UniProtKB/TrEMBL annotation:
Family: Belongs to the MoaD family.
Single GO molecular function: nucleotide binding
Protein name: Molybdopterin synthase sulfur carrier subunit
Pfam families attached to this UniProt entry: ThiS (PF02597)
Amino acid sequence: MKLKILAFGITKDILGGAEKEIELTDEITVKDLKTKLESEFSELKRLRSYFIAVDDEYAEDNQVIISTNEVAIIPPVSGG
């Protein structure tokens, strides 16, 4: 299955664009997706933290992702 991932902020730079499509063999959990992304884009490991959102909601590591989900990588944010 193909999964489109949206990237924002620094994660856009790390992935090389605002959107990245990856090929998956089956359903995947958020934790598995993070592991896959970190193996392909090792700079993600250097971030203090980042979140995965699925269909506009922050996702827990055990949430299953399917090809019809909208997935986004949310980088750490700072405010003031």
